[in-house]
Backbone:
């Protein structure tokens, strides 16, 4: 209340002061009721971790859980909710509801559950498609506690090496490699060793990043408060004044970093991680970037057994509550009653529609798929829906290269770390030229390459795939470069498409084998996933891997007060990346926010409270 009053003093005339104090007191009372109130059941009432069970390494046994095909006879009766999409945002909201006794059906269009957390196998090599490393997983941290509860403590994590990231700048004849270390003090100390004389800039960069990232709680607040109150905070300017996150949201990463230092290599190193949310520095919000820096300050982790372990340990919790997770279940529309309220979904089974009903429908298919493809045309034109769509745009398409190599990590020089490779330190210029160029020219000049070895990060790999290794490359590509082939058969696209893929693969392999020369003559498998590959397998409308675009407009207070779990359609909710932020942690936060709205309870505070109780050894039930 003191902060609120002191802020209002800057722009409220004295003769209005008494009225403002009265209004502020009323606002605080409402905030306590809606944000701190706890009328509904909590999935975090008690610590539900179970004793660790032996890992299941047999892929066939895991597929019995992950690949349960849709049949009308498998649909549970008397459903409480239907979730469209089995990405982490969809599975997480299903588990949260299951933990308070709700019967939930999750429907996935692909042939396996997990969304970007799924894995696939080609020629004996297993590849992860979206999980490369996760931060903030120290014991008793809220994110770790949340994941432990969503998997009953069965999902195990392996820390990456330290340094966990390596930033590569320049051509081979003038290459500079800057290691990025975890540890709040060591990150700073090691960076200062690389850039003597830049100590002040580095300290200020970290200080500012922490300050801005600490204000992200206000984004959650805007999505949980009643819409009129959220709009009041937006239109009075209070949201920007009260939150460091929103104060810096309109400032680009390039602008902030350029004010801190003139050293171009240091600027690039401060910006390097922009690839984890998909915007070049001059189009990226410093606020978004600050979250990523802080996310990895304490270290980075990878799931033991690979990314499929995530869905594998969540699905049984949904099933135990009477629900199910069914694949090969493409939802073609959301069913509405005469009052335009969501009452279920239609699933395409061959040429026939199977209608499944539930009082709540939750979409993890993304805002574009949900509003533009799953709703009737007349509903799509609703002003409230069109307003939300006008606030967002599609993110850039993802490009992945999957490499299978003969040899162990020791033989090949592969470690549990990541490389971000850039041709030079002028990141904005390189990225802009690439994305705006024609496809033939751009295929020869890929300006950003993320390289990692999933097999080297996973301690179970030698037992599961002895004598083999994998390398994964991630970059970005313009959807328009590949769009003409989007309707071709997935495994039988045209020769021109294959030639374009090969051009990208060839150029990227040059860069990868310069860093990892021992893999060059031992590659047994290589293929690329383009934006239209993502469109087919994970239902990304324009091949994007981070959902709606994460540029500066994404972080306006008005957008964040408007796009929330509730949709303009009664009983229809959104979960996942498009509700909050991109990535694994962002999609999880979107699910918790969605669960808070549906259960009428602040689950964020519940999860934090449980983390504190677990840390202190007090696991007693708390309603």
Residues:
């Amino acid at each position: 209340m003191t902060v609120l009053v002191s802020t209002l003093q800057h722009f409220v005339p004295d003769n209005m002061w008494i009225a403002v104090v009265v209004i502020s007191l009323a606002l605080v009372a409402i905030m306590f009721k809606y944000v701190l109130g706890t009328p509904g059941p909590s999935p975090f009432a008690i610590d539900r971790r179970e004793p660790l069970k032996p890992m299941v390494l047999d892929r066939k046994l895991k597929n019995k859980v992950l690949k349960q095909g849709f049949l009308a006879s498998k649909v549970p009766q008397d459903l409480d909710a239907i979730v469209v999409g089995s990405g982490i945002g969809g599975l997480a909201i299903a588990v949260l509801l299951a933990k308070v006794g709700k019967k939930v059906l999750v429907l996935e269009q692909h042939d396996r559950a997990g969304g970007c957390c799924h894995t696939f196998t080609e020629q004996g090599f297993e590849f992860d498609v979206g999980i490369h490393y996760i931060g903030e997983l120290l014991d008793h941290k809220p994110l770790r506690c949340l994941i432990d509860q969503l998997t009953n403590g069965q999902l195990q994590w392996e820390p990456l090496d330290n340094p966990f990231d390596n930033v590569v700048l320049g051509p081979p004849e003038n290459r500079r490699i800057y290691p990025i270390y975890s540890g709040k003090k060591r990150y700073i100390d090691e960076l200062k060793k690389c850039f003597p004389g830049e100590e002040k800039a580095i300290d200020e960069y970290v200080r500012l990043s922490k300050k801005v990232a600490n204000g992200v709680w206000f984004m959650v607040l805007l999505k949980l408060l009643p819409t009129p109150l959220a709009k009041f905070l937006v239109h009075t300017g209070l949201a920007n004044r009260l939150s460091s996150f929103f104060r810096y949201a309109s400032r680009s990463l390039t602008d902030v970093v350029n004010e801190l230092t003139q050293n171009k290599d240091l600027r690039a190193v401060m910006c390097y991680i922009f690839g984890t949310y998909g915007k070049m520095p001059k189009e990226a919000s410093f606020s978004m970037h600050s979250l990523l820096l802080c996310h990895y300050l304490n270290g980075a982790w990878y799931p033991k057994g690979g990314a499929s372990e995530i869905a594998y340990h969540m699905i049984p919790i949904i099933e135990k509550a009477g629900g199910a997770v069914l694949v090969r279940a493409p939802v073609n529309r959301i069913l509405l009653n005469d009052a335009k309220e969501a009452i279920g979904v239609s699933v395409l089974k061959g040429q026939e529609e199977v209608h499944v009903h539930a009082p709540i429908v939750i979409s993890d298919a993304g805002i574009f798929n949900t509003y533009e493809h799953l709703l009737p045309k007349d509903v799509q034109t609703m002003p409230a829906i069109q307003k939300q769509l006008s606030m967002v745009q599609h993110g850039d398409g993802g490009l992945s290269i999957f490499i299978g190599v003969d040899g162990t990590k020791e033989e090949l020089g592969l470690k549990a770390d990541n490389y971000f490779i850039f041709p030079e330190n002028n990141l904005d210029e390189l990225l802009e030229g690439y994305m705006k160029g024609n496809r033939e020219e751009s295929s020869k000049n890929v300006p950003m390459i993320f390289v990692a070895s999933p097999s080297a990060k996973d301690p179970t790999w030698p037992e599961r795939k002895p004598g083999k290794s994998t390398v994964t490359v991630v970059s970005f590509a313009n959807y328009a470069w590949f769009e003409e082939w989007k309707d071709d058969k997935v495994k039988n696209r045209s020769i021109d498409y294959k030639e374009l893929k090969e051009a990208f693969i060839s150029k990227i392999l040059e860069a990868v084998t310069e860093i990892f020369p021992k893999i060059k003559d031992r590659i047994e498998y290589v293929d690329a996933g383009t934006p239209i590959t993502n469109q087919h397998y994970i239902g990304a409308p324009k091949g994007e891997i981070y959902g709606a675009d994460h540029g500066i407009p994404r972080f306006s207070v008005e957008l964040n007060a408007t796009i929330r779990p509730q949709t303009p359609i009664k009983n229809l909710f959104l979960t996942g990346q498009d509700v909050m932020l991109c990535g694994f942690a962002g999609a999880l936060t979107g699910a918790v926010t969605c669960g808070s709205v549906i259960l009428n309870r602040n689950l964020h505070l519940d999860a934090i409270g449980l983390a504190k109780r677990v840390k202190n050894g007090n696991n007693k039930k708390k309603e």
Remarks:
- Residues 69-118+307-391+563-621 form a domain with the FAD/NAD(P)-binding domain fold (CATH 3.50.50.60).
- The longest helix spans residues 495-515.
